[in-house]
């Protein structure tokens, strides 16, 4: 696929990986619709792009609004070539501290947000006979460690949704890619902490303390779309972890236990008033 002149919607485009995807697509000649619940953030990203790009406020938990953005692109241009279901949040901390409202919010954004994008875009792509759906999951969709349990649950669901959809979509002309990065340098690393959790420490520890670059991931993603790949895992060390998790799931889970226990101990040391305990 060449991106010149392609019409693309990106959700969560106002920050981090979504903003990097907007930049990469714009540079490649695509017509970008950068959407985000934070309209000002989407506008700020678009102000750095070519005049082809435009911004729109979009809350991915609102199915009708997602359909509206897709319908608008189709009404203007006759088609939708690409949708990047990328918006996401994280909660990090002991699972017993999460409220039901927090559980529902992460399911609504990380999973239902993707469902809404697929439900709005996929029928149109089938009608037009082509298109590409790109869902941002995570390494947390391929491996499982505690303290990000709600995040892991939603990202595993996005991986399953994407791989299943791909098996019926590709033979009908629609590509599906699921993107599974380990830690990427974006503001999410400092968001969503519950108790004494520190996302940056937690997520970077398995990557030698260094997060992957968001613009590099965006370029990797466009290459994976061009090659119609099923799944993109970055960086390389994460590919080894994924391989190991499939080879020895029991051992991987014991390693996750040690990792999470170590994290919790450090959190209590740092934040003695944290609700976490070492028991
Ligand atoms: N950064 C990482 O380490 C990492 C690793 C793996 C996967 N991811 C995934 O990448 C995606 C993008 O995350 P990021 O790292 O760029 O984070 P980010 O916080 O920088 O960006 C997320 C964007 O989503 C938007 N958003 C939140 N709720 C929304 C909603 N209801 N509707 C529309 N937009 C909403 C936010 O306003 C924000 O602009 C997420 O799905 C995340 O889970 C991130």
From TrEMBL:
Gene3D superfamilies found in the cross-reference section: NAD(P)-binding Rossmann-like Domain
Example GO molecular function: oxidoreductase activity
Span of the signal peptide: none
UniProt-listed Pfam families: adh_short
Keywords: Oxidoreductase
A GO term from the CC aspect: membrane
UniProt-listed InterPro entries: NAD(P)-bd_dom_sf (IPR036291), Sc_DH/Rdtase_CS (IPR020904), SDR_fam (IPR002347)
Family listed: Belongs to the short-chain dehydrogenases/reductases (SDR) family.
Protein's recorded name: Short-chain dehydrogenase/reductase SDR
Species of provenance: Mycolicibacterium vanbaalenii (strain DSM 7251 / JCM 13017 / BCRC 16820 / KCTC 9966 / NRRL B-24157 / PYR-1)
